[in-house]
Every structure is written in structure tokens, then in C-alpha cells.
Amino acid sequence: MNPSPDHTIRILICVRHPFDQWNVPDWFAERLQQMFPQVKVVHLPDYKRMDEEIVDAEIVVAWSVRPQQITAAKNLRWIHSTAAAVHQLIFPELVNSKIILTNAREVHGPVVAEHVIALIFALAKKIPGSVRLQEKHIWGQQILWDELPRVREVAGATVGIVGLGSIGRPVVKSAKALAMRVIAVREHPEKGSEGADKVFGPAQIDEIFRQADYIVLAAPVTAGTKAIVNAERLALMNPGACLINVGRGPLVDEPALAAALREKKIGGAALDVFPKEPLAADSPLWDVPNLLITPHTAALTDRVWERHYALFSENLRLYITGQPLLAVVDKHKGY
């Protein structure tokens, strides 16, 4: 689209989450209004007026929109999700429409990749075990050494990445800088290795589980990736190998993972995401040995909304001038 100068673009912002940091700050809408005089921004604090406001909106910033709202929004041309995951938006009314869907994968990806490297170090150096011993005032040098898998170096270890998208690519770069061997699986290996030593197609994903010391899940949720980590694949891992999930909770069969950890079939795991969040206080996962839990904090940064604004404002500029947008989601693939 290339609107005429007198065309007013109505932007509806409606993002509501129990965690404060995920909610769009007031300055975001105010800055947009100042930077783009041809837009009219409506920033809702909750979903109460969503039905009435979306009817006239041309652009919506949200991660939760209902099918009936899509049907009612006759002027809607573009939805931008401030989340990376968009599986909750992949329903027929949107998929089969001409509405463009973009997401924030490039906002979150590099930050999540930093968290991945932190988790690799935490597992390799047994940081969680040291913290637990510190709380008990125990000098646990011998304890930490005797417990398998032993404290180890990451240099020379193999990291296997499932998904070479906005998270996987910077993980490759950081892991290579740490002298790690990197293997990966991606849907289309012909698109390139992104610096990895070896790239497999989906049919060869078992090789990641056989070869890697650290397996990093960074794939979207699709019909083909749900429970991609199951009992059979966990059984392929070597006894000292560790699993890290920063993708989405449904990628992992949690009972199977818990059983593998309790039976010491694998060396450890770190989960940042879960099928249902927040993780219930009575979840058995809290007490699983050698499992490090972070409460979906991988994407957190004090710069998150500046990063969001940089992406969305650039995309808005492209939209106004009729140019292709960044971070467009293939609605039929779901990512």
C-alpha cells in the first residue's frame, strides 16, 4: 500500500499480559503519533473495547485476536505480534485472508540466544548445584566433582540446534566463538548452514540427538514439531548430554523428560518454556533432579521496548511507502 497524503492510518494497540514487561508502554504510542503524523493511534489497556475498535483499524498490534474480530475488521491490512510465536493466530479466518502478519522474532531472537549460552555454561559448570550447596553452607567441591556428569569445558563440545531461525542463527555464532562444534537441523537445509559445521534435514533429526552434548530447541510450534522430544529421542542421547528448550513448551514431552532425568539417562536439562504458564506450584518438574527451570525469562531485557519500537516503526515506514515489510510470517507454515 502507498496511501495518499490525506489518508489517516488507524493503528490499534492492544496487548495485555499479567507480566508487566510484556505490556506496551504508553510512550510507544505517543512516539508513533509524533513520528508519523498521518496515523491515529488507539492504545487500549485491556481487551474490553477490542471488538468495537478493531472494526475501523487498518493496523493492529496484538498477539491475541479472535476469528470473529478478523471477520468484522473490514479495513484491517496488517497485524503485528509483539511475540515471536504466532500459533495462537493461525486460524482459517486470518490464514485465508490478505492480512499481512508480522512478528517480533528478530526482537527476541538475539536476546534468547544469549540465554541459551548462559544455560550451556550453567549446566557445564554445575552452577545450580553450587547455588544449592551455598544455601546449605556446604563446601561442595568433592560433591560436585563426584556427581555425574562431571564439570566440563564447553570448548570442543557439540551443540545441536533444532531450528536455524532468529534464535538458532546467533546461537551458532556464539557457540562457534566458544570453539564448540555446531550441528543443526532446519526444514530446508539447502538454504545454508548459517555457519554450522553440519546441517541436517527434518528426516535426519535423530542425528542431533545422537551426536550433540547440548541440544537446543529453537523451533516454532507446528503440527510437525509438537512433542518433537519424546522418549524415543531422549533414548538416543548420550548419558552426559543436556537438553535446552527456549522454543515453546509443546516441543517437549515433559513426563518423558522427567523420567529420563530421574533415571539418569541424560545428563541434565534446562527449560525456559512450558505448555501451560506459569508452571503450577505443584508441578512435579520443580523437584526433578538436574533440571534447571527459568520462568520464561530468556527474552527479557531492559531494552525490549526500544527494540520493539525500532522494528515496528521501520515496518510502518515501509508500509506507508508501499514497500515489503520485515519479519513477515508465512501464515500457511505458521512461522
Radius of gyration: 22 Å
- Please describe the biggest sheet, giving its number of strands, its sense, and whether it closes into a barrel: 7 strands, parallel
- Domain count: the total is 2
Q: In terms of per-residue confidence, which ranges show pLDDT below 50 for 5 or more consecutive residues? A: none
What is the number of strand segments? 12
Give the overall shape.
elongated
What keywords describe this structure?
single chain; 335 residues; alpha/beta; Rossmann fold; 2 domains; seven-stranded parallel beta sheet; five-stranded parallel beta sheet; 12 helices
Structure description:
The protein is 32% helix and 15% strand. By secondary structure, the protein is an alpha/beta fold. The protein has 2 domains: 9-106 and 301-320, NAD(P)-binding Rossmann-like Domain (Rossmann fold, 3-Layer(aba) Sandwich), CATH 3.40.50; 109-293, 3-Layer(aba) Sandwich (Rossmann fold), CATH 3.40.50.720. Strand 4, helix 4 and strand 5 (100-102) form a beta-alpha-beta unit.
Topology diagram in text:
Elements: E1 9-14, H1 26-35, E2 39-44, H2 50-54, E3 59-61, H3 67-72, E4 78-80, H4 92-95, E5 100-102, H5 105-124, H6 127-135, H7 141-146, E6 158-162, H8 168-177, E7 181-185, E8 198-200, H9 206-211, E9 214-217, H10 231-234, E10 242-245, H11 254-262, E11 268-271, E12 291-293, H12 304-320
Parallel strand pairs: 1-2, 1-3, 3-4, 4-5, 6-7, 6-9, 7-8, 9-10, 10-11, 11-12
